[in-house]
Amino acid sequence: MKVYPLCLPCFLNQIRKTAEVAGLSREKTIEIERAAAKFIWKDLEPEKSPGHNATYIHRIFKKMSGVEDPYRILKDKYNSIALKLEPQLRKEIFEKAKDRLAAAIKLAALGNVIDFGVPNAFDLEEEIKNFFKTPFAYFDEAILERFLVPGKTVLYVADNAGEIVFDKFLMRELKDRGLRVVLAVRGGPILNDATVEDAVKTGANEIADELITTGKDYIGVDFEFASEEFKKAWERAYFVISKGQANFETLDGVDDKDIFFILKAKCEPVAVELRCNPGELVFLYNKHLLELKEENGED
């Protein structure tokens, strides 16, 4: 996915929001926003993904503010909230489901509403209450079933803190189907993305057969910056589960691997790329998306 014009004001809005979370002064916020605007003006790479460009903008923020992990307190808060909800979700939704794989996929998708990097308000309790009413633009469960081969390895690329608790349902279901699960989180703090610390605090590491990182503080996945352990895990994986917008932005167009995207389309550019409406949930096989593009005569 490439940068859309709508991404540019979103970059600056992310800086403003992050500065607010970090408690920066008006003057310091404006100073960092001006530096971010200068990057957008001079160094933006529009042919690369929004996640790629946002990574450098947030590195500007961290360098100028001196705050390495501005969302740490909020990440801990939403990890805690999600962990308290986990028993309720298991009892009232997952265990009552006739199709537990479908329920696990939907819970993983609903967890994606926990995203402080996108400037939209959300009500977690309300999202859960309306669980079965939430529309899915695509739900490629039948395709996933063909990949659930006992003994094979799935690479599960996580997205946000808090959300990672919702991922535990799908990770457990995959393991119950006989698969080996490798969980990948960010290698350094960036936005509210899950790191090793979050995986450990939520117990997600105890479900995974192996816990690795994607590399440094990179938003999404870029193989130029990915860790060697991630590259090896990618090559060995039978298929990949990709959570969230940033992972989709950076992995969209990678067609030499079987990837299942799980996310909520939280902005118009991502919705356009996914051929869905903003606000819809998506569980989409990358080859299915490729077919949609080919039908429309797109490269």
Structure characterization notes:
Helix 1 packs parallel to helix 3, helix 2 runs antiparallel to helix 3 and helix 4 (72-94) packs across helix 8 (163-176). The model has no long low-confidence stretch (mean pLDDT 92). Helix content is 51%, strand content 12%. The chain has a seven-stranded mixed sheet with strand order 1-7-6-5-2-3-4, with helices on both faces. The chain has helices at residues 7-22, 26-42, 50-65, 72-94, 100-110, 124-129, 141-145, 163-176, 196-202, 204-207, 228-236, 245-251, 268-274, 286-295; strands at residues 136-139, 153-157, 180-185, 210-213, 239-243, 259-264, 281-285. The protein is α/β, with parallel strands linked by helices and 299 residues long. The longest helix is centred in the N-terminal third of the chain and has 23 residues, at 72-94. It folds into two domains: 7-65; 87-295, Rossmann fold (3-Layer(aba) Sandwich), CATH 3.40.50. Strand 5, helix 12 and strand 6 (259-264) form a beta-alpha-beta unit.
Summarize the structure.
This protein is of the alpha/beta class.
Tags for this entry?
alpha/beta, 299 residues, 2 domains, 7-stranded mixed sheet, Rossmann fold, 14 helices
Order of helices and strands: HHHHHHEHEHEHHEHEHEHEH
What oligomeric state is this?
single chain
Overall structural domain count: 2
Structural class: alpha/beta
Distance between the termini: 12 Å
What proportion of the residues is helical, as a percent range? 40-55%
CATH superfamily assignment of the largest domain?
A: Uncharacterised protein PF01937, DUF89, domain 3
The biggest beta sheet reads: 7 strands, mixed
Quickly count the helices: 14
The CATH architecture assignment of the largest domain turns out to be: 3-Layer(aba) Sandwich
Question: Over the alpha carbons, how many angstroms does the gyration radius reach?
Answer: 18 Å
At CATH level 3, the topology of the largest domain is: Rossmann fold
Quote the average pLDDT. Answer: 92
Shape: globular
Kindly provide the name of the CATH class of the largest domain: Alpha Beta
> How many extended strands?
7
